[in-house]
Amino acid sequence: MNFIETRGNDGIKPVEVPFSEAILNPSTSFGGLYVPAYLPKLEDDFLVNHVNSSYKDLAYDILKAFEIDIDESEINKALDLYDNFDDASNPCPVVKVKEDLFVHEQYHGPTRAFKDMALQPFGSILSSIAKKRDEKYLILAATSGDTGPAALNTFKNKENIQVACLYPDGGTSDVQRLQMVCEDGKNLKVLGIEGNFDDAQNALKQLLASQSFKDELKKDNIKLSAANSVNFGRIIFQIIYHFWSYIQLLKQNEIVYGEKIYLVVPSGNFGNVLGGFYAQEMGVPIEKLLVASNENNILTQWINTGVYDIRGKELKLTKSPAMDILKSSNIERVIFSLFGAQRTRELMENLNNENIFTMSKNETQIVQKYFSAVDSDDSFGLKIIKDFSLFGYLMDPHTATCIKAYENLKKKNLKCVIYSTAEWTKFSPTVLNALNENNEKYADKEALEEISSNYKAFLPQSIKDLFNSKINHSMVIKKDNIESEIVKFIRES
Ligand SMILES: *Cc1c(COP(=O)(O)O)cnc(C)c1O
Q1: Model confidence over 14-57: pLDDT tens digits?
Q2: pTM for this one?
Q3: 326 alpha carbon to ligand 1 midpoint, in Å?
Q4: Cα separations (Å) of 464 from 113, 168, 313, 427?
């Protein structure tokens, strides 16, 4: 299958490209995104036939339906990475916590957050294509905490790929920072930036637009690529686990085939819930996709009013930082699916030029057929973490935002799967504040120890080891020095 562009074609770029091209060179006409030319329809009994499949077999069959131009052996090699998750036979368990409430735990991979679900196989596939084409790529990442560790972990020592990762010094948790600065691999460069996440992200954007930087890369025959969720190579792996949600409920005899379910997704860049939208379009019986936001409630505003307005808005720093967002990239793919390229280009250009777009009433109602949304604040999240701990389930602050959607938006008496996008260990000071109902400033190490001993919570060895690991990247620099440091890195490695 080929891939097309959400904002239409400029007559210079190819009208369609194969999967390998879309993921290696994700830039498109008019600043759009690549999407599949159509969504494969699966046979009627696809779900029932996969009730006893392993996750890898399910993933393989879904990837095959997209007819991606990747060798079978490379696909299998990529999917084998799920064997490194806590339970190779069930990398993302769906756990019952109440009669109608299930938690899909997406954090059992190497960096303990949901980014591993897609980045682990994606890294393997990207490197294999680059190698096959005999091309070298530099991946630039700016992270507020979860993408960085997951990208470094997947690309370390991968051939034909180098990674430069920028994080805001002081702006991540200790665990997140240590996961980055302790990662070794001669193809990795991790740079702390004096500033906040916006500064890191703006520095990255400037770099991507810098002609001098591109000229430097050209001298070494290095191309730029991206590992964020604008890359369809990540999205494709985020479709699979929504099928898994449904199949697990079938397998656990919680639903009968055809019965609809709700999915609740804590959202930022909208990649995770976009995967659910595609799964629904491909035939998974989903009643509605419930979008959870934090106080940065731009997605709630968009879905509830049809207006996406970031004029004069500033990002708030919350206890669920991976959902702190103003411009959410993947809503564009939904808009394209529902309203086509011309309208997508119009709305996105409005947003770029005026920081606002407004959909018609009819368009808004169409979006609302698929999605409902609600936001919650930190105090709600803290209370939920405490409440659920009392009957033995420990969740992280991102997962907690889902409970608001479960309580407010679930209109029918159907089963509901909420997505747990991070393990409590990644945000342990916040979790301990919730459990102890206080505001103390805990260090991660202290909070991890107290929670694991007092609440008998499992603490993975990889997290414990971080505090005794060698720091391989100690550099913290000013924004102005990023370009020269990265050029130095690609010359040296
Ligand atoms: C990235 C992330 C999210 C947001 O996912 P999107 O696909 O960007 O909507 C939510 N929670 C955690 C813990 C994350 O790392």
Answers
A1: 999 999 999 999 889 999 999 999 999 899 899 999 999 999 99
A2: 0.96
A3: 14
A4: 16, 23, 39, 14
